[in-house]
Design brief:
Layout (H helix, E strand, L loop, with lengths): L18 H16 L3 H14 L1 H14 L5 H11 L1 H9 L5 H7 L1 H6 L4 H29 L8 H12 L3 H24 L3 H18 L4 H13 L5 H32 L4 H9 L1
Helix pairs in contact: 2-8, 3-4, 3-5, 3-9, 4-11, 5-11, 6-10, 6-13, 8-12, 9-12, 10-11, 10-13, 12-13
Length: 280
């Protein structure tokens, strides 16, 4: 007996989004955030800074539970798989994360649809709000370290030691790689049509950042600030970490993703597609 697969009708098919459509959607999202009131941005940024702290909490739990039981490479692999959890909470929860806006928000400026002043306003508000929310989470972690059975202060200190031992240039360049990956994350999430696809993209990219040990300014703020509150890291070491990492994340996201994606999209030679995007 012959069987035939039912072909999807044209309206049921979901073709891959074009570059121009992704660019248009990311620009619209960025413009919406640029026009958002200050209070809304602050609250959303604080929420993201708090939510992403669960990545650090779970990594600390894993490090406390499995150190000395599994080989170090296995523990590191498990840690890397805990890293994406907070990002999933933030991205799917539509909270404002600074390392997304370093990529997305510059696109309307490149198009002449917004100004550098509005871009800087968005960056400053979201960044400071993320840092504030993350610092609160770091205080919570340091307060409960050792009093709760599932994680210890030594685990917080060990995570921080991975970042505070490097010099400025090393931190800057490794953070640029993390910013590059975060820029790709923002672009690929915009390209994804389904929530499951977005989760897979988030997990793969941020998991790569975690396994590689690349510094992310918002997650790293929690990692290093927690050790600072336990007395293991000085305030000077904290600032020496946060400065180059923030700059590196910006450089990686802006230059390796935003500018390159924008230019190769606008120069892709598909004028008909431009007209279709504008009409849609």
């Amino acid at each position: 007996m012959l069987t035939f697969k039912k072909k999807k009708r044209p309206e049921e098919q979901k073709p891959q989004k074009s570059q121009l459509l992704i660019l248009q959607q990311t620009e619209e999202a960025a413009l919406t955030q640029m026009e958002r009131n200050t209070k809304g941005l602050i609250l959303s940024g604080i929420s993201a800074g708090l939510d992403i702290g669960f990545s650090v909490l779970l990594m600390t739990v894993v490090l406390t539970a499995f150190t000395g039981i599994f080989p170090q490479p296995v523990v590191k692999f498990i840690l890397g798989n805990m890293y994406p959890i907070g990002f999933i909470f933030v991205v799917l929860g539509r909270s404002e994360l600074f390392t997304e806006h370093t990529t997305l928000a510059i696109l309307p400026v490149l198009q002449g649809l917004s100004t550098i002043k509005k871009l800087l306003r968005l960056w400053v508000i979201v960044y400071l709000s993320n840092i504030f929310g993350g610092t609160i989470f770091a205080l919570i972690l340091s307060y409960f370290a050792g009093t709760l059975h599932f994680f210890q202060a030594s685990a917080l200190n060990e995570i921080a030691d991975e970042f505070t031992k490097y010099n400025f240039l090393t931190m800057l360049l490794s953070a640029a790689l993390a910013g590059w990956l975060m820029g790709l994350l923002a672009w690929l999430v915009a390209a994804s049509r389904e929530t499951i696809s977005q989760i897979v993209v988030i997990f793969i990219i941020t998991g790569a950042i975690g396994i590689a040990g690349l510094p992310h300014c918002i997650v790293g703020n929690i990692e290093v600030a927690s050790a600072m509150f336990t007395g293991h890291v000085s305030f000077a070491q904290y600032l020496s970490f946060l400065g180059p990492v923030t700059l590196g994340n910006i450089l990686g996201g802006v230059f390796f993703v935003s500018i390159l994606k924008f230019n190769h999209t606008m120069n892709s030679g598909v004028e008909k597609e431009v007209e279709l995007v504008e009409e849609s």
